[in-house]
Amino acid sequence: MDKKKLVILGATGSVGTQALEVIEAHPHRFEIYALTAQTNAGLLARQAWQFRPEVVVIGDESKYSELSGALEGSGVRIMAGATALKEIVQHEEVDMVLTALVGAAGLEPTIAAIRAGKNIALANKETLVIAGALVMELARQKNVQILPVDSEHSAIFQCLCGENRQALEKIYLTASGGPFFGWDQAELRNVPVAKALKHPNWNMGAKITVDSASLMNKGLEVIEAKWLFGLETGQIEVVVHPQSIIHSMVQFDDGSIIAQMGLPDMKLPIQYALTFPERQVNNFKRLNFADVPNLTFAAPDRQTFRNLELAYRASEQSGNMPCILNAANEVAVAAYLQEKIGFLEMSDVIEETMDRVEFITDLNLENCLETDRESRRVAGELVDELICKKG
């Protein structure tokens, strides 16, 4: 069997490091062509020494010297900057690109990879949130597979394999509820960052963990699912499932529901995306039903956790509204992590940005990127206004 040659965008993040664990366990299946990171030159260098890719790319050009020094004598080619990301994903030797970058940064290199005909293992949900219609149409034109890595979308993908898509009635995206499930607005108003970063089930980066706590992560997944599976927003229901054992479900028009289950471990959906259509034997821990005798479900509180409601609104409006939502959220989360604004104020910033930025129905890459820039500017001003009010 020929080895699949991979590029991992975002190799030093949570998904990237777990993907490398999967690859290390199956050296006969995979070979690394390139690894990238935005700022973590130290870890990227250690990964490069271990996996010996052809190329490494550091997004932050100020880290180039540090990375060069750490890889002296390795024989690995070193590049830097956003243009380099778009260049490496198009190389003729590459079979698949795992996009594990966080936020809007994943959009342009993912599009570049699709244009070059590379299959995509997609862990960067923002790519489809920002430009879902454009990306899916381009993938169709280039005959490119987009294989979901998010555990929820991987679950839906697995449940639909071999099924008649015309019989699909709706899907259920499960949410853990995060660390604040059941809290009211009074409890959330002054919640410290440290508590928001303590997710009960999943080990993720700071931005995604805060998104999970605010339910924005689930809102972004609603929009992603709409494009991945060709659904209407009304066909997507979020259900809170604190145990994170059922990763998502599909309901068919005869009333049957199929669920995909397993322990909360990202390595399984990562491996499935990398090896599809095959299943690869592994030594991951197996689910023991006796350890989880109770599986519970609840409706999300969309009034308290307004980010989920805002995401549904953006999905319904479509056009550039999901792009506005995503950009404003990235700015708001960054401000919250820096303790400049409160937990509930993130939703205030996002909603006001959605109201202020011009709504566009006909999208292309250029106006998507312009919307992203303008939304960040507006959201930044709103953050500054909140800071000024606090004195």
Oligomer: single chain
N-to-C CA distance: 64 Å
Shape: globular
| Spans of at least 5 consecutive residues with low confidence | none
The sequence of SSEs as H and E is EHEHEHEHEHEHEHEHHHHEEEHHHHH
Strand tally = 11
Q: What gyration radius follows from the Cα positions, in whole Å?
A: 20 Å
Biggest sheet descriptor: 7 strands, parallel
Structural class: alpha/beta
Share of residues in helices: 40-55%
**Strand order, biggest sheet?**
4-3-2-1-5-6-7
Strand percent estimate: 5-15%
Helix tally?
Answer: 16
Summarize the entry for a quick read.
This protein has 391 residues and is an alpha/beta fold. The protein is built from 16 helices and 11 strands. The longest helix is centred in the C-terminal third of the chain and has 25 residues.
What would you say this structure looks like, in words?
The chain contains 16 helices and 11 strands. With 391 residues, it is an alpha/beta fold. Strands 4-3-2-1-5-6-7 form a 7-stranded parallel beta sheet, with helices on both faces. Strands 9-8-10-11 form a 4-stranded mixed beta sheet, covered by helices on one side. Helix 6 crosses helix 14, helix 13 packs parallel to helix 15 and helix 14 packs parallel to helix 16. It is globular. It starts with a strand and ends with a helix. The mean pLDDT is 95.
